[in-house]
Write a structure and sequence with these properties.
The chain has 467 residues and is α/β, with parallel strands linked by helices. Helices cover 36% and strands 24% of the residues. It has 13 helices and 16 strands. Helix 11 links the parallel strand 14 and strand 15. It is elongated and about 75 Å long. The structure holds zinc ion.
């Protein structure tokens, strides 16, 4: 009898440790990330040993080599590079700008927007027209704009809680400002930085001339929020003041680059793919720690944390480090093209590209049935203060994988500080908190674990999280 009890006890202990419930698995994933994570160490290297990784640059190449080598150390089933041609644009010398009013010179902080033309070597001097949107520009017309610098000064809306919505409400000034002003014969464009904070950092980002004729294309730069206010105030006192700016950026021919991919091949359904990713390229001003070094290292750690937690995925789990999200989306486009050509069934794609801040949850781009399944997992995340499960967007890099039936998702960290750093020289490693970054990696890993375990809809009722 005593022996029998001992046997039963041992059996229970055995069962307990080898068939963990989802709750216990999540606990183990968070614990491993917070006590034995690699994301912060990888980010340190990417940020401090490599630095800003603009597509086509030497640093982008170094980042490809580094992440591939690190993934190879993880004992995944496959690690490879997926070739993709990317644009190459260089900032050149540091930009120079000042306001000239009443014979007094006031220096201001600007930076060229990605993809912009240079000014002539001696710079551009012109009067300034301040506007807040394209309608105002149209109302002014050619007569009042020709020969002038257009200054877009619509600030990000401060009362929006999700700062990405505030960004979305402003970014057309940056992206299409030169395209629109060029139509009316403007000679240059200055855009208020996409930043909710008042400071001296100019924030770069991509812009496009669309199909504007070459003779109408004009240089375009961002000005810091402090200096945007200085310029606006100065214009109130002297509407004929002169603004001077000089930039020497240059567009080169496309160059060869790569997406970096690692895979754990699924043990039961190898042609059902779950991917996690971020973008390896960044802007050149900072070291791209939040945008998107954080997403890169978190995604790498997802595969490692699954392995460390003793999980053998049923489906194929890939980490994809996309190249060229910032100024072309070529890596994402190429990845989706090849996935389609190979008939790979991407059932779930998760991106982290909103900074390495405290995770709050996810945004899901999917149909109502899939969303319902995802919502059933929400209570499991409660102990980690992860509460945000909403339908909405996902991420730029996973976007091209959208299908009628799959689920795309984006990690949603706290967004209040993101735009203090976004695309500026203060997007640097010291502004990323180790624990916040690791919590993000664990949150992503947990969702991937659940998705791998339960698969895509329709999911039989008994397979729900009751275990
Ligand atoms: Zn990004």
């Amino acid at each position: 009898m005593k022996n029998n009890i001992l046997t039963i006890t041992l059996c229970l202990a055995f069962t307990f440790s080898f068939s963990q419930t989802d709750e216990e698995t999540l606990k183990s994933i968070y614990k491993t990330s917070l006590t034995n994570g690699m994301s912060y160490q990888w980010l340190d290297h990417l940020s401090n040993n490599i630095g800003g990784r603009l597509s086509g640059s030497k640093n982008a190449e170094l980042a490809v080599d580094y992440t591939k080598a690190e993934l190879e150390k993880l004992g995944l089933d496959k690690v490879w590079l997926q070739p993709v041609m990317v644009p190459k644009w260089e900032r050149g010398e540091k930009e120079l700008a000042y306001i000239n009013t009443d014979g007094k010179i006031k220096k201001v902080n600007i930076c060229a927007l990605g993809g912009s033309l240079a000014t002539p070597e001696k710079g551009i001097t012109a009067e300034v027209v301040e506007v807040t949107d394209f309608e105002e520009l149209e109302a002014l017309g050619k007569e009042k704009i020709k020969g002038k610098i257009v200054f877009y000064n619509r600030p990000m809306q401060a009362d929006l809680i999700n700062t990405f919505n505030a960004y979305g409400g402003c970014v057309n000034q940056r992206y299409a400002g030169a395209m629109e002003a060029g139509k009316y014969g403007a000679v240059g464009v200055i855009v208020r930085s996409m930043n909710l904070r008042q400071d001296d950092y100019p924030h770069t980002g991509s812009m496009s001339y669309g199909d504007l004729p070459i003779e109408n294309r004009i240089p375009s730069a961002a000005i810091s929020t402090n200096d945007a206010n200085v310029l606006s105030e100065a214009l109130k006192k002297d509407k004929n003041l002169n603004f001077y700016f000089k930039q020497s950026c240059q567009q080169f021919d496309d160059v060869q680059s790569y997406n970096v991919i690692g895979e754990i091949t699924g043990s039961a359904f190898p042609n059902e793919y779950i991917i996690v990713g971020g973008h390896l390229d960044s802007w050149d001003l900072g070291d791209g720690a939040h945008d998107d070094g954080a997403g890169v290292v978190q995604s790498m750690d997802v595969l490692r944390l699954l392995k460390e937690s003793g999980i053998t995925p049923k489906r194929s789990i890939r980490v994809v480090l996309f190249m060229n999200e910032e100024n072309g989306l070529r890596g994402a486009t190429e990845y989706a093209k090849i996935a389609e050509a190979k008939n790979e069934n991407h059932i779930f794609a998760l991106e982290s590209d909103s900074g390495g801040f405290t995770p709050r949850g996810f945004s899901f781009a999917t149909n109502a049935t899939n969303f319902k399944q995802v919502l059933a997992w929400k209570p499991l995340f409660k102990p980690y203060l992860i509460h945000y499960f909403e339908q909405g967007g996902s991420g730029a890099d996973v976007g091209p994988l959208k299908s009628e039936t799959n689920v795309l998702a984006g990690l949603r960290p706290d967004s209040q500080r993101y735009f203090d750093h976004h695309h500026a020289s203060n997007d640097t490693f010291e502004h990323v908190n180790k624990r916040e970054l690791e919590l993000g990696a664990a949150t992503m890993t947990s969702l991937v674990y659940l998705y791998d375990k339960y698969g895509v809809n329709p999911v039989p009722e008994q397979q729900q999280i009751k275990d």
